[in-house]
Amino acid sequence: MQRDAISQHRRTGARSRPASIRDVARLAGVSHQTVSRVLNGHPSVRDATRTRVLVAMDELQFRPSRAARMLSMRRSQTIGVLAAAVGSHYGPASSVSAVEDAAREQGYYATVAHLASLSADAISAAVEDLLNQDVEGVVIVAPRTAVLSRLAALAVDIPIVAAQGEQEDAGGIPVASVDQRAGVRMVMDYLTGQGHRRIVHVAGPPDWNDAQSRLRAYEAEVRSSGLPVLPPAHGDWTAESGYQAGRSLIQAAGHGELGFSAVFSSNDQMALGLMHAFREAGLDVPRDVSVVGFDDIPEAAHFWPPLTTVRQAFDELGKRCVAMLMDAIRKSEDPSAVPDEAVPDAVAPQLIVRDSVAAV
Question: What's the confidence (pLDDT) of residue 71?
Answer without folding.
Answer: 47
